[in-house]
Amino acid sequence: MNLQEKINQDFSQYKTQANSSDAFVQLREQAFTEFEKLGFPSTKHEEWKYTNLKPIAEQSFQATCEINPAVHAFVKQSIFSTIQANRLVFVNGSFVQELSTMLETNTEIIIGSLATERHKHKTIFEAHFGKYAQVEGQALNALNTALLSDGAFVVVPDGKTVSHPIVILNITDSSAINVLAQPRNLVVIGKSASVTIIEAYEAMGTNAAFTNGVTEVYAAENAHVEHYKIQQQAGESYQNNFTQIFQEANTNINHVTLTLDGTMVRNNLHFYMNGENCNSLLYGLYITDSKDFVDNHTRVDHAKPNCFSDEKYKGILKDQSTAVFNGKIMVHLDAQKTNAYQRNQNILLSDDATVNTKPQLEIFADDVKCTHGATIGQLDEEPMFYLRSRGIPEDVARKLLLNAFADDIAEKINIPELVTLLEQQIEHKL
Amino acid sequence: MAEEVDIIDQVVGQEYKYGFTTNIEMDTAPMGLTEDTIRFISAKKNEPEWMLEYRLKAYKYWLTLPDPNWQNFHYPPINYQDIIFYAAPKEKIKLDSLDQVDPELLKTFEKLGISLTEQKRLTGVAVDAVFDSVSIATTFKDQLKEKGVIFCSMSEAIHEHPELVKKYLSSVVPHTDNFFAALNSAVFSDGSFVYIPKGVRCPMELSTYFRINAENTGQFERTLIIADEGAYVSYLEGCTAPMRDENQLHAAVVELVALDNAEIKYSTVQNWYPGDKEGKGGIYNFVTKRGICLGDHAKISWTQVETGSAITWKYPSCILKGDYSVGEFFSVAVTNNMQQADTGTKMIHIGKHTKSRIVSKGISAGKSHNTYRGLVKVNKKAEKARNYTQCDSMLIGDRSGAHTFPYIEINNKSAMVEHEASTSKIGEDQIFYCNQRGIGTEEAIGLIVNGFCREVLNQLPMEFAVEAQKLLAVSLEGSVG
Hints:
The complex is a heterodimer.
Chain A: H1 3-17, H2 23-38, H3 54-57, H4 70-77, E1 86-91, E2 94-95, E3 110-113, H5 114-120, H6 122-128, H7 139-147, E4 152-156, E5 166-173, E6 179-181, E7 184-189, E8 194-204, E9 209-219, E10 224-232, E11 237-247, E12 252-261, E13 264-273, E14 279-288, E15 293-302, E16 308-317, E17 322-331, E18 338-348, E19 354-363, E20 368-377, H8 381-389, H9 394-410, H10 416-429
Parallel strand pairs in A: 1-5, 4-7, 5-8, 6-9, 7-9, 8-10, 9-11, 10-12, 11-13, 12-14, 13-15, 14-16, 15-17, 16-18, 17-19, 18-20
Antiparallel strand pairs in A: 1-2, 3-4
Helix pairs in contact in A: 2-7, 5-6, 8-9, 9-10
Chain B: H1 2-11, E1 26-28, H2 35-44, H3 49-63, E2 87-89, H4 103-111, E3 125-131, E4 134-138, H5 141-147, E5 150-153, H6 154-160, H7 162-168, H8 179-187, E6 192-196, E7 205-211, E8 222-227, E9 232-240, E10 247-250, E11 253-258, E12 263-270, E13 282-293, E14 299-306, E15 311-314, E16 317-320, E17 326-335, E18 340-343, E19 346-349, E20 355-365, E21 369-378, E22 386-396, E23 401-410, E24 416-425, H9 428-436, H10 441-457, H11 462-476
Parallel strand pairs in B: 3-7, 6-8, 7-9, 8-11, 9-12, 10-13, 11-13, 12-14, 13-15, 13-16, 14-17, 15-18, 16-19, 17-20, 18-21, 19-21, 20-22, 21-23, 22-24
Antiparallel strand pairs in B: 1-2, 3-4, 5-6
């Protein structure tokens, strides 16, 4: 049974148990209709031109709630267990209470699983869920909405600060079968509140895993959010990720995506600035080897005047790996005094590596400053020569230069443990 | 702000200068497109059998294609049965000299500032004038013949140099390339043909002047330029059309072939009728232009100044097949009022050590939209390929749009590819600076825009550069407050 058939079966099964008078259930039914209409996007779709989903759509994947005891040991040795944090652990998309830890003492702050907390905080849930991540025309968002398993539900009331970072650790365990995980996170940050969120993706097991995640972040006026996404799924792991960040006036968002492993990773990161004086910072680093494929699609919507966005994505490609970057800056009508920057830089270390990049600007206002740029090349010969002429061996010099290249992104990370992780990975991969 | 709007209202767009029509007896094909239309065109031109077969093949392929829909602009679907695919001034006898050309026609070209009378040697440019679908006259033929340069109309070339036409026609833009290329291959009526023999540096600029005149017609011309080993040619193209309320289609195909060490420089100043302020009428300029550097060390350079047309949709491209070959693209696209442009280039690096450079300047004013779309592709075998792309946009007025869609596909690690783009508006301080020194706002804008485009204008041959600068000032007149 391929994925499409499996999905149809899963949904009809879900329908028999669901109470169709529930608004949430109706939303899911609508989403499923949309998914049925769209199907898996093909490479003929402009947004999926370079990303072929066939290997996923033709395999069989299964959603499962069973927890393998080996997961406990896996979580313990994970680097994300070393961070002093509120930790929510999801295995194959299901929340695992006994592996999670909670440090937050303020009971007004909600940090928990979506499946249970949504009943307790129905008004907040219904006011925000599915309001930002678009389902129309987005087949995989629709699929996630229709068949989501679980995910994090974070609500920070006005004026509150979460004292420790919140780690949302997603693990796919494919030891027994090919697994399908569809995590769905909802983060609602009140006025003048602040929070740090680390979304991490890891994998264990020898079969294939497909993660199709959606994260919605709502930031009310003056909110401050640090959002990190760390992807290091070993083995045959496929991942599609959609993150929609919705900003009200005077909000600051700092987002960093690190893609360190994964057979096929597709990230869709959308920012929407719905108020004036917003800052959106989005940074990314991808290091790929073997036949890995990484695709970063970003979109920044400057809908209101006087906002600032800065985007920088960097990539180091080895072996036969492929990277895709598609950045879109959309300056809406009357979003005057917009400042938007976008850069994508790639270093190719192998003749078989491929980079496809599309830095795009769409501008409908005249008083704006927008620049974008893309570069693709090898390591510069001059600094290399400089180092070698001072007695530094070639491989050390190369490592030094690559580290310097990656450092640009590393310095945007405010959590020391993550920087260490990144350094280790660079050391290990290069 | 109110003051700004006033100025805009006062002076928006000078009237289109070339909007007159010429009353001349025309020979036209029946309206619409069927196999018979193609046979009619082919018969009119007395074409050999292989040409007709080629046309029919293209037509059959065209029938299978849906209208393209990926572009970044809107236009109402074109009804291809409402177009006259062939219109020619009535031919009385075969023309031997210019004296026999209809004086009405000569007057038209004189009005446009194109001299067909060879006495005006000062201009030093050989002209092929294409009126509606047919080449009227080609000047300086004899002088070019001495050097072995062939410069004639396409229909002449099909008869007189069939071996060259057969070898190269459709070799760069096959009829299967795209919707409009297929259409053009089926119905093209005329165009220019240039062949520069081995080692010859063409002694003068070659130029084609296109004029659409008849109503309801589409213009489909086909240009083929071949530069043999070590040859050099600089080619210019200019165009105008009368003002009409309906949209007219111009779907041309241009193919350039450069062999070893050859260089082709192709410059366009496009000034088709852009439609009125409300966007009524105007030319749809849907053109396929592509050059191939077949040999090593070949060079193809495109320069375009696009100021006219209701919609401009074209991507003059270079296929860099020979090692060490060079492709260049310099473009200024200006849109005003309701005009739309989706233009750019493709640089396909196949050979080793190939280089390409793209400089694109987009200026959008009024309610117009200007899109740069470009592809830089480095194939796996294209070692040490180098590309530099710069595309800058300038916005004038808060209802205009500027869009950039570059595609960069790299399959070789030794490639060095850079892309840079920026968007800005004309700074108030810049205008203030000029005003302060007694330069009026209009003039200041002309000055700033010309400065913005200078890199591209510098690439144009002298005579054209002057014209282009004036054209820029005229197209933008009154668009700024």
